[in-house]
Give the backbone structure.
Amino acid sequence: MSATFSSRIHRLRRLQGKLPRPGTPEGECLIISQLLLLMPDGYGTGPEPTRRRAMQRDLDELVRDGLIEVVNPGGKPQRYRQLGDELLQDQADWQYLMSHIHDVVQDLLPHKRLDRFLDRMYRALDGPLLDERKLRLVPDTLRLCPPEIHAGVLEAVLTALLKDCVLEILYENARGARGAALIHPQAMVQRGPTPYLFALKNDETEPVRTYALHRMIRARARLGEPGRKAAGFNLDQAIASGQVDFGRGKVIDLELRVRGYAVEVLRVCPITPAQRIEDEPADSPFLARVRVQVPETGALLRWLLGLGDNVEVVAPEGLRLVMREQSVKVARHYARLSEAGDY
């Protein structure tokens, strides 16, 4: 692409993504006036003729680069759609990829540098700045294989989200029962390896339900049918409320005693910037005491359990009791082996 500034490349990518997919019928392809409505913040606030000329220049460049096409050459007004199906030429795929890059990188870079990094990613579209020979990101937890998603489902879901249209699905619930529905996508979130879609079902105005993509047997985006927006829906609030087990929970004053590798981990990588850590007395079976305010979530419990006997929850009392109960249950699995003299 001949554009040189990252802001313009970003705008060109957005413009390309607003256009219908390759093969869309001519009558459903878009003209400049429709595209200006879809990108109200993309071409300034000047007079409409000025904004139209700026968009026309961008469209001409995308046509020259072979990324979009005019479906009615010589017609007035001209209509446009995407051309080709390269992975990152589809805006839905690109946005999905960038969301994963954002999630990974935000833990690696200071907050103020994250946007600058993502801008550099846009400039690296024609060749990575660092490839896998020089840069790898290795998770520090067991990475589960993602569930198998039926052919065409992810593409249909991303298209419906991007185009704000109705999604027709055949869904199988956890009990194996299948049913068809017309759903109205609101947002998508990925919990570990599993993506979930927030959506309204059929004619319901509430609640916003969650649908696991791997349980969708079929999915088709109805491009001609605008989807309904759920009143007051906010993705951050939905996550905070505990849907798909991402709830923040109430904030607790967590106090831990730690030893072994957990000490070095928490000294180098604190739970929060406000964490306090101090040495334990010389006669203590632990090496350090950690105090921090943190949301009480399932993720916190799983992390604490994963530390095994390298951690003791001192407070709050409720979490301490949960840890004790879980530890007793785990010990029961191995009690029979111990009694039989197997170790």
In short: The first helix runs from residue 6 to 18. The longest strand covers residues 178-191. Confidence is low (pLDDT under 50) at residues 1-6, 85-90, 108-115.
